Amino acid sequence: MAENENKAYKDFIRTIIDEDLKIGKNDGRVHTRFPPEPNGYLHIGHAKSICLNFGIAEEYGGLCNLRYDDTNPVKEDVEYVDSIKEDVRWLGFDWDDREFYASDYFDKLYDYAVQLIKDGKAYVDDLSQEEIREYRGTLTEPGKESPYRNRTVEENLDLFTRMRDGEFKDGEKVLRAKIDMTSGNINMRDPAVYRIKHASHHRTGDKWCIYPMYDFTHCLSDSIEGITHSICTLEFEDHRPLYDWFLEQLRVHHPQQIEFARLNLSYTIMSKRKLLSLVKEGKVSGWDDPRMPTICGLRRRGYTPESIRGFAERIGVAKRDSVVDIALLEHILRDDLNKRADRVMAVLNPLKVVIENYPEGEVEELNAINNPEDESAGMRKIPFSREIFIERDDFREDPPKKFFRLAPGREVRLKHAYFIKCEDVIKDDNGEIVELRCTYDPATKSGEASDGRKVKGTLHWVSTAHAIDAEVRMYDRLFKTENPGANGDFMDDLNPDSLDVLAGCKVEPKLTHANPGESFQFLRKGYFCVDTDSTPEKLVFNQTVGLRDSWAKIEGKKK
Ligand code: ATP
Ligand code: MG
Q: Is 398 left (phi over 0), alpha (psi -120 to 50) or beta?
């Protein structure tokens, strides 16, 4: 396909690709990759990178590889490999048969390292890690050359072979590129190429006791796979000269590295290391805890793939780091759920109401619309009877001004049902309200009174005999500060009230048959989804997001 014509506005990456296509670079191919290290679960930041890499491939009729960047045998695990595949697929992307592993290239990478040695471009160093650090210099001072830098090619080949054969201990020797110890770019001061690590790898087992370093592995993996545009985050900008150096020295296919600003979200941490410590220390129930910014956490929380993709598109890509307001993500999610979630009634904190003039034993099936935003969602029947539950805080014995809900002597509308009027308040011995006695007006079934009298409040409710018990997990932000860890340990910024489990909620009978992952709008309460813990015997819901749109407010103020 020629230029991507779909987008009116082109970000700088797509502009580069358009230019490349115009001059016929890479024979008109566009080939990207998403290269996660399988040392944790993917998070919303990775989603940005996934949408960018797979999205560009899709738009240009190109390809995107899934490549595991698995060069660190100690921290990696198949559990993570599997979760990454599930998450990318869930987001709606497909890598066909192009599932690759940097570890599959270990033989080739070894040969490339030997090539560098033969060309006098790499040497085995005996300095300790600490000495290497000292010799490296600083941003303002040049580095010093290692005394082992000028070993002969023969000696280097011999030592590197013996490194591979396991003759040396971890850290005893290291293979380094021979570049320039005085370079203004510290990454170019003879960076490590191979290190000794006597550890089993999740894919290559005990075949290797030397492992290639990231910078060496990454550019060559890109090259081997015929990648055209290697898109990565800004912190690799200073590594680009090294990326280019390896490829130039080895005279192989040379993809172009392009950097963009990583996603930062307010009230959120995204480092996998930190997320892992939340899991390990039991601060959350697991990687998929609905409060986690991981893709599996967001999925369990009720996020849709469309909302995450929509978010990625909306924030776009830039060259400068910034922090995105999490309210924007929630705003896009709410918009999406508004279109697709059926409305139901659920009472989270029930108060019993007896409708005294309603015939005992009678049950009426009332009509209710499932989704006013989507006619195709149809209608349903909801049972109404003499005893119902309403929300406890929809009643006040002494209503303050502007409280338009139920109070003694006051009349309100029940959604999809009748007007009721509070006649009496029943309390227990402690003075706690246990029940309301009301009357209803049979002539208000349409939702309006025939004499034209108005009510100000409309309440949601469920019939006590038909209601299903449910547990509802209410969430607040996992961190109480906008930039967790800004003033010390991020753990100190955890919000102690981020989870509130409401037992004894009452929901419409329709929800008995809801499946895990299904989303609903609980009228007046927000969006909720069925949790993976939910069973027909015990329904469990997660609060996904409330109805109040703080982003719309922010946008409104700007206008
Ligand atoms: P973390 O810092 O969370 O451990 P990482 O960069 O080490 O992240 P990788 O598995 O190496 O994690 O990331 C895979 C890809 O996702 C890389 O190309 C990386 O640049 C990209 N990526 C990671 N975090 C973000 C982010 N916050 N925003 C955009 N892209 C990201
Ligand atoms: Mg990384």
A: beta
Q: What percent of the chain has pLDDT over 90?
A: 94
Q: Is 271 in the pocket of ligand 1 (CB under 6 A)?
A: yes
Write down which residue in 460, 490, 524 finishes a domain. Answer: 460
Q: What is the rounded (10 degree) CA torsion for 87, 470, 407, 454?
A: 60
Shared domain check, 279 and 179: no
pLDDT per residue as tens digits for the range 441-458: 999 998 999 899 999 999
d(CA 61, CA 436): 64
Coil/strand/helix, residue 542: strand
SS3 per-residue string spanning 506-536: EECHHHHHCCCCCEEEECCCEEEEECCCCCC
Domain that holds residue 363: 346-460
User: What is the 285 CA–ligand 1 centroid distance (Å)?
Assistant: 23
pLDDT of amino acid 558: 65
Kindly give the number of the ligand 1 atom that is closest to the alpha carbon of 263: 28
Q: How far is CA 271 from CA 318, 443, 479, 490, 496, in A?
A: 20, 60, 14, 11, 21
* Residue of 84, 20, 77 whose CA lies nearest to 50: 84
- For 20, counting Cβ atoms within 10 Å of its Cβ (0-12 exposed, 13-18 middle, 19+ buried), the class is middle
Q: How far is ligand 2, taken at its centre, from the CA of residue 428, in Å?
A: 61
Q: What is the CA radius of gyration of the chain?
A: 31
Intervals of the chain under pLDDT 70 = 1-8, 557-559
* Residue 233 CB less than 6 A away from ligand 1: yes
Cα 359 to Cα 114, 181, 384: the distances in Å are: 90, 92, 11
The residues with which 413 forms a beta bridge, in sequence order, are: 419, 458
Judge if 77 and 92 occupy the same domain: yes
Dist CA 18 CA 14 (whole Å): 6
